[in-house]
Specification:
Layout lengths: L2 H21 L11 E6 L5 H17 L2 E6 L3 H9 L5 E4 L2 H7 L14 E16 L7 H4 L3 E5 L3 H13 L8 E5 L2 H6 L11 E2 L3 H8 L4 E4 L6 H10 L4 E5 L11 E14 L4 H13 L1 H4 L11 H4 L10 H10 L4 H28 L4 H19 L1
Helix pairs in contact: 6-9, 10-13, 14-15
Length: 381
């Protein structure tokens, strides 16, 4: 056989191998798009900072250009994902509400959304207060000004749950509503409020700690069983956490706060398995580039961020990569199968509720949906 013929044969074989790999989910199917859009919390939030760090890492490694679309509202962060105007949402508890069809998503135009999770890092959430407001207990919180965010149940519901831990309701405090997350977080240092609820690492919290007012975290000790029962009656996705990373915190000065997943990298369930696989693989391959961008970025290691529980079921493409990496267990799969089933049950119940209540007012419909929702979950358990 001539050298020219050998070369041609080798070229054809290479093309054939490449095509086979592409169709089998191989190299070509694992590439990131040239451009991507991600949604996140406002500029200055932990979610925005972490999305920026990952975007920079993926740009350096793969040349992918990422546009980050910030929003101060739950709908503003999730809607671009649902409408395919954003590929990934760096979300908070709105992912849970969306999957469950509760809060903003209990309205007729929404319902339980068919979403999936790629990963989500463990985070702490608590109540930062102005040190000069002398809020040393939940009793001291009464009568104080607490910042809430308009159109953001992800923050507000968690804040109500946190106050419930100490036997405090929104009637016991002065709720001050702000148009955006960033404005609410800045309000304490600006003297407009005395407390709010957030994670420990937003830039505004570090600014508060350095401001004349100072920063003090109001704790939720794990030893207070009754308090935790009250908290979980409102926000069942929380657990206790001793946090030493964040504004005003250190190993010598930790705080007992609440634990959940934030940011939760959320996508549509119909995102292709190859695209989900490629994204999680890229997260893993660029981890060393972004892991030191903030103090909490090491928690994006997939042996931590790629494990249940999460606000919704994990995407099959993410699971495929996690299995290859060896971090996805049989117990994780059992959890995920149950979560997928729960989401399917809720989506079926929603269809029935829409048929029954199409002519009802929003208030009547909400009551019917909650009744049907609880009945469907009870019958499926």
């Amino acid at each position: 056989m001539s050298q020219t013929h050998k070369t041609k044969m080798g070229y054809v074989a290479a093309i054939s191998a490449g095509v086979a790999m592409a169709f089998s989910g191989g190299v070509l199917a694992q590439e990131l798009p040239a451009t991507m859009t991600w949604s996140s919390y406002d500029v200055g939030s932990a979610g925005y900072a972490e999305a920026s760090a990952m975007a920079d890492a993926m740009g350096k490694e793969y040349g992918t250009k990422v546009r980050i679309q910030p929003s101060g509202s739950s709908i503003g962060r999730l809607q671009p994902v649902l409408q395919k105007r954003a590929d990934v949402g760096f979300l908070a508890t709105e992912a849970f509400f969306a999957a469950e069809g509760t809060e903003d998503f209990s309205k007729k135009r929404w319902g339980p959304q068919d979403i999936r999770v790629l990963a989500g890092r463990p985070a702490a959430f608590g109540m930062p207060t102005a040190a000069d407001a002398n809020i040393n207990s939940f009793e001291d919180l009464k009568g104080k000004r607490v910042a809430f965010v308009a159109g953001n149940p992800s923050v507000n519901v968690k804040c109500e749950a946190y106050m419930a831990f100490g036997g405090v309701t929104t009637d016991d405090v002065e709720i001050v509503m702000f148009p955006s997350y960033g404005a609410a977080m800045k309000s304490i240092a600006e003297g407009k409020t005395d407390a709010t609820c957030t994670t420990t690492t937003p830039s505004q919290m570090y600014e508060l700690a350095e401001s004349p007012r100072g920063l003090k975290w109001l704790g939720a000790p794990s030893s207070n069983v009754e308090g935790w029962e009250k908290l979980k009656s409102i926000a069942p996705f929380f657990g206790p956490r001793v946090e030493a990373v964040g504004a005003g915190l250190s190993e010598q000065n930790p705080a007992e706060l609440m634990a959940y997943r934030y940011p939760v990298l959320t996508v549509r369930a119909d995102m292709s398995a190859d695209d989900a696989y490629a994204f999680v693989k890229a997260m893993d391959e660029t981890f060393d580039i972004y892991k030191n961008a903030t103090k909490v970025m090491p928690r994006w290691s997939l042996d931590v961020a790629g494990t249940p529980p999460a606000d919704a079921a994990f995407h099959e493409g993410a699971i495929r990569y996690l299995k290859e990496k060896g971090t996805w267990t049989d117990a994780h799969q059992q959890w995920n199968d149950a979560r997928v089933k729960r989401q399917q049950v809720l989506q079926a119940a929603w269809k029935e509720t829409m048929a029954q209540g199409k002519d009802m007012s929003e208030e009547q419909f909400a009551d019917l949906w909650e009744k049907n929702r609880q009945a469907a979950l009870a019958s499926s358990s």
